[in-house]
Amino acid sequence: MFINKSKFLEKYPNFTPGMHVYGNDGQSLGRIISSDENSFTIEKGVFFPKDFTLRYEDINDVRNDKIYLKGTLGSLREWKSPEYTGWEHVERVNVGEIKPQPVEGFRPSYEALAEETVKVPVFEEELEARKIARKTGEVRVKKIVHTELKHLTVPLAHEEVRVYHISSGRILKDDEAREAFKDKEVSMSAMDEDVEVGKHTVLKEEVQLKKERTIEQRDISDRLRSESIEIQGEDEAKKKKVG
Fold first, then answer.
1. Span 93-113, pLDDT tens digits
2. 41-89 confidence digits (pLDDT tens)
3. 101 in the Ramachandran plot: left (φ > 0), alpha (ψ -120 to 50) or beta?
């Protein structure tokens, strides 16, 4: 399974160039002099006659600032041979023109080099607008009670009893005569109208508050970043492939 450097560092965050590399049997192979996203390079001299590149999936463990490969010193003898295409033609191997020929135990890791697809993500920024509501003002309606003096003119009725004396020489009838010479009291009421003051409440008016929303177009702008792919060494690789 292909493992890149970022994935490898999640498990072994202390990995760094300068660490010594050993076979699985504890035999020293050399020191790491460089690393990139897909591989690391061991310096020549201790085991390899030339700087040799390995992949992160070839590592079995990292402990005590030492790196241990999956293979032993004996299984790596073939890599030490000057005829070994794994390092003699390392540039052509890396671009997939030829396949390395490791010992059988390491063959699965390297046979996929020619067919391997490396995905390079290309990013760009997009402009987005987020609307945020903010308070720009408010309207308050407050009722205040006022007291004022009101004057009304009210017509009032007034009654008075007037007594009129009317002379008459008429002879009474028998039934009228029988009522004569008796004590009798006659009364008549006189009425006056007076004012009784009362108050009642009426709805004078209503005040309504209503919000109206309007839409306005506003232009926004910002600087956005984008990535592009620049391929280096493509022409040289094609020339080697043709040759």
1. 555 555 555 545 555 555 544
2. 888 776 676 777 788 888 889 988 899 988 776 666 666 555 554 444 5
3. beta
HEC sequence for 107-157: HHHHHCCCCCCCCCCCCECCCCCCCCCCCCCCCCCCCCCCCCCCCCCCCCC
- pTM, full prediction: 0.35
Domains by residue range for the chain, with CATH: 5-122+231-242 (2.30.30.240)
Q: What is the residue whose two structure tokens read 């061991």?
A: 42
Rounded-to-integer distance, Cα 113 and Cα 2, Å: 10
Q: In whole angstroms, what is the distance from residue 94 CA to residue 73 CA?
A: 24
